[in-house]
C-alpha cells in the first residue's frame, strides 16, 4: 500500500462526513414531518430514571410523575434495554436528547461505511445523500423523534456484512443484539437456514441464537423485579396510519378510513386485505427467490431479505425505511446502467423528501402518505420480474474470502 492510499481514504472519509453533516443540517430545516419533538428519547430517559428510583418504567403514571407532565410515549422495550438507556440519566433530559442525536449522526456515518462494503462502486457522497433524504428522509424522522432505529440499523448491517463474508456466528450475535429493542428483526436469523456460496445451512446455530435472544428478552421479565412482568402486558398499539407509519397495513387502514379498529377485531376487513396482500406478494416474489437460490449469493440474500422484511412487516415506521437505502442501490443497479447509475437511484429514493417542500404534497392522501412503501414495493417487483432478463448470468460471489464483501455485479 502506497502512502497516497491512506491519505486518499482519510480524505474520502472527511469528505463523506462533511457532506453528511451539511445535508443533515439542510434536511432538518426543509423536510416536513408531523413530529418535531424527541418523544422517544424522553421516554427512554424517564424510563431509565424510574428504574433507578425503584419505580415502574412500564407505568405511564410513574413516568409522568418524574416529568411533571404527561409523557407522550410509553416505554415498550424489554427490561434488559434499560441498562443501555441508564447512562442517559447522567445528564438532564434535554441535554441527553441532544447528545443522543449527535451520537446518531456519527452512527449514520458508520452505517454508510458498512453499506460501502456491499456497494463499493457507489460513491460514499451519493450514499450519504440517499441516507439523509432516502424514503422520505427516514433518518430525519429518527433524529427528530429520538428513536433507536439508527443504532438498530448499525447493529443489523454489521451482522449482514458478517453474513455476506461467511462469518455466520458473528452474524447471529449482531442480529441478536439488534433485535433486543423491537424484537421483530430477530426474523433475520432465518438467513442462517439459507445455504450460499459462503456458508452452509446451520439449523443448530439458528436455534442457539434464537434461544439466546429469547433468554435475554424474556428471562429478566420472568425472574426480575415485579415491575418487569409488565413488559409481558404491553399497551395495545395504535393501528398504522399516515406518514409516520408507511406500510401495507397503513395504506389499507387509510383506504378503509378506519384508524380505530384493531387488526384482530371484527369485522376483520383490514386483516383479510393484509393477508391477501401477503399472499400476492409472496407469489410475485417466487421468481426472485428461485433465482437467488440458484445464484447462492449471500449478499443478494441480505438485500432481498431486508426488502421483504420492510414490505411484510405489519407495523413499519417512517424511520425504519433507512434499512431500504442500500438494497435500493443493489437491486436497481442492473436497470440504471444506461440512465446515470447510482445517481439515478439516489435521485429516485430521495425525490419525495426533496419535492414535498416544493409542491406541498397532500399527505392526507393514502398514496402520498405511504409513498416510501409504494416506492420500495416497486423496486422489489422490478427486481423480481425484470432481473431475469437484465442479469441472465449469476453474479460473482460477494465474499471471495471471509471478511471481505464484494458488491453484486453491476453495483454502480
Layout: helices, strands, pairs:
Layout: H1 4-30, H2 39-52, H3 60-67, H4 82-85, H5 93-118, H6 124-145, H7 149-164, H8 168-178, H9 203-223, H10 248-256, H11 269-295, H12 298-312, H13 325-332, H14 342-359, H15 366-369, H16 371-390
Explained architecture:
Helix content is 61%, strand content 0%. By secondary structure, the protein is an all-alpha fold. It has one domain. α6 packs parallel to α14. The protein is globular, with a radius of gyration of 21 Å. The two termini are 25 Å apart. Mean pLDDT is 89; it is low at 388-412.
How many domain units?
1
Give Rg in angstroms. 21 Å
Please trace the helix and strand order, writing H or E for each element.
HHHHHHHHHHHHHHHH
- Share in β-strands: under 5%
Q: Would you tell me the structural class of the helices and strands?
A: mainly alpha
Main sheet, how many strands, which sense, barrel? none
Helix fraction bin: 55-70%
Whole-number mean pLDDT: 89
Q: Give the overall shape, derived from the CA principal axes.
A: globular
Give the number of DSSP strands: 0
- Please work out how many helical segments DSSP would assign: 16
Low-confidence stretches: 388-412
| Termini gap | 25 Å
